[in-house]
Amino acid sequence: NQLELFYQPQVDMRSRCVTAVEALLRWHHSDRGWVSPADFVPLAEEIGLIVPIGTWALRTACTTVASWPDTLRVAVNISAAQLIGQDLVANVKKALQDSRLPAERLELEITESVMLNDTVATLATLHRLRDLGVRIALDDFGTGYSSLSYLRRFPFDRIKIDQSFVREMSCQPDSGAIVRAIAGLSRELGMATTAEGVETREQLDLLVAAGCNEIQGFLFSRAVPADSIAEVCGAISEMLRQPAANC
Ligand code: C2E
Ligand code: MG
Ligand code: MG
User: Fold this and answer.
1) Cα-flanking dihedrals φ and ψ of residue 214, to 5°?
2) Atom nearest to 216 CA in ligand 1
3) DSSP H helical segments within the chain, as ranges?
4) Rounded to two decimals, what is the model's pTM?
């Protein structure tokens, strides 16, 4: 019982509202304190533990967010091992049923590497998930193999631009060009785009100018415990109302 889910807001700059939160694992270790998922998720994936952990995260996120305003979606990260397993579709269905969270409020984030596995079976699972009404996002886009054929093979609802491009946007023109290209591509394909890792106003302005209006990053908030989310969303609304914020 040392795992917890924190939630990081995602802001839509057109409506100036928090429209979603991403559920992010945190491990409160009795000796080590907070351990980052970047440290333990890869190991959990290697030893297979990510499947029960992921199932727990899915159920917890659905149950928690079901009691939040119904304008708020929740994004849950899904590992390749969960997608390869037989139970993901049934687990998602059960999590939705038990929590009574409407399917359209759940988004599942998968990374490009998932598409490297048994593609036929993976695509079939993704389609079955979509048939349940949940949305599918392609996380960390641009870091892995970034094959454009993935975008043709599955109609993702959202592409999340990796934070490495966002970080370098202001100093490296090529990162800006890549961000503009990804935003344009997803617009043409009818997919939403979210930029991750947005920390500064300059990055925000560049992203909006590049046509990327959905923003996640420390500029607005870090991931916070469930009981802090109302306060954080209130603070973000206040920040977006200020003319000085110019956003
Ligand atoms: P991710 O899914 O790409 O999540 C975004 C990561 O970027 C989070 O790190 C978040 O805290 C961080 N981040 C967000 N905004 C900023 C920013 O402005 N600046 C910086 N420097 N970082 C920012 P976190 O929480 O450490 O998670 C790392 C990764 O661990 C996640 O990357 C995801 O791949 C994995 N992970 C987390 N929770 C789960 C889970 O429930 N299941 C699975 N399978 N993987 C998870
Ligand atoms: Mg993610
Ligand atoms: Mg990501």
Assistant:
1) -110, 125
2) 15
3) 37-46, 50-66, 80-84, 88-99, 119-132, 148-153, 163-168, 173-188, 201-209, 229-241
4) 0.96
CA distance 176 to 93: 39
Residue nearest to atom 22 of ligand 1 (CA): 197
> Is the CB of residue 51 below 6 angstroms from any atom belonging to ligand 1?
no
Per-residue model confidence as pLDDT tens digits over 135-193: 999 999 988 776 788 888 899 999 999 999 999 988 888 888 989 999 999 999 999 99
Check if 9 has its Cβ closer than 6 Å to any atom of ligand 1.
Answer: no
d(C-alpha 230, C-alpha 7), whole Å:
11
User: How many whole angstroms from 215 Cα to the centroid of ligand 1?
Assistant: 14
**Token reading at 129:** 């998930």
Neighbours of 179 (CB within 10 A): 26
Phi, psi of 228 (to 5 degrees): -100, -5
**Radius of gyration over alpha carbons of the chain, in Å?**
18
Distance 38 CA to ligand 3 centre (A): 11
Q: Which two tokens stand for residue 68?
A: 């939040």
Going by C-alpha positions, the residue among 116, 26, 41 that lies closest to residue 79 is 41
Answer yes or no: is the C-beta of 24 below 6 A from any ligand 1 atom. Answer: yes
Look-up of token digits 């998932």 = 114
CA dihedral 114, 119, 123, 129 (to 10 degrees): -40
Q: Tell me, using a 6 A CB cutoff, whether residue 142 lines ligand 1.
A: no
